[in-house]
User: What shape does this take?
Amino acid sequence: MLAGVEIRRPRRYVWGMTDLPWHHTPRGFRNPPGSPDEAHPASVRWKFFWWLLREQGRQPVVPSGHILSPAEIRAGLDAAQGDSLTWLGHAAFLLRAAGKTILFDPFLGDWASPLPGLGPRRFMPPAVPPEALPPVDLLLISHNHYDHLCLDTLRRLPGRERTTVVVPLGLGPLLRARGFFDVREVDWGGRVDLGDLGVTALPAIHWSKRGLFDRNRTLWCSFALDLPNAKLWFSGDTAYGPVFREIGRDHGPFDLAMVPIGAYQPRAMMESHHVNPEEAVQIGRDIGAARLVGMHWGTIRLTTEDPFEPPLRYRAAAEAAGYGESEAWLMKIGETRALKDWPRN
Assistant: This one.
């Protein structure tokens, strides 16, 4: 059980049928019990959309060294031996572990929108263009938002015919239509095993939408990865709620967790969808993560906070929670870190 969510084999909804998991509804899916209320004043929403229109095209001041040079990025990828993690920017990571190359939420395009010019544009380039990535054995996509599921990126990935894709319920057709043959749709609690690597879809507190009339028609999730020598957790996008203590109890502890630290203002609007840095650190504590990696920041401006405020708040919150600099990572875009020294074995 996860905060009152009983995981069962997914079934087609039938009117009047009550024997369904909590997060299944007649029209799609909903968040776990105890999640924050999505209600907020309309005035907050309209002010945010006006800000979004006004800020498009404005380039923030980027600190020196925030992104590595192409030569440094390539050298880091080539030099890594054994398990390693590369931050590609935003929520995209390349993990090499258990003899496999694993790609998370690859947004490596320019626009987080259905068409160029209609939404936020990234202000930092991706660490590596999609076609320059090594062939991917396993692709994990947490939900269908444009800054996590980028069709241009997927189209340009090499070796799609050999890639296993794990997605939450409802996203399979979109991936199969893009040339991926081995696509596994999973409910919360669903597991996929690939040799020495196990992937379990777990709850997150978020929502889904790609068009005008499909809100919450597909599921969203976080992912737990079981490796031969370690356990990892990838949050996807999430707000904060009691479900993470349940995840820690039932699936933790974890050696490393990738947690979102950006896109949290205005708080009245974002608190039901995105954690702030302090809540991201609390999630780490709730799930029993020995090490944290901050993500979902410093790449594309989605919300009103200064884009380089998140790492400052994250570092302070991590220190207050007992995570030193070696346990609370802030990676540079394109940086590769070896994972040979896991905190637990």
User: Anything to note?
Assistant: The domain at 65-338 is CATH 3.60.15.10 (Metallo-beta-lactamase; Chain A). The chain has eight helices and 16 strands. The CA atoms of residues 177 and 183 lie 11 Å apart. The chain has one domain: 65-338.
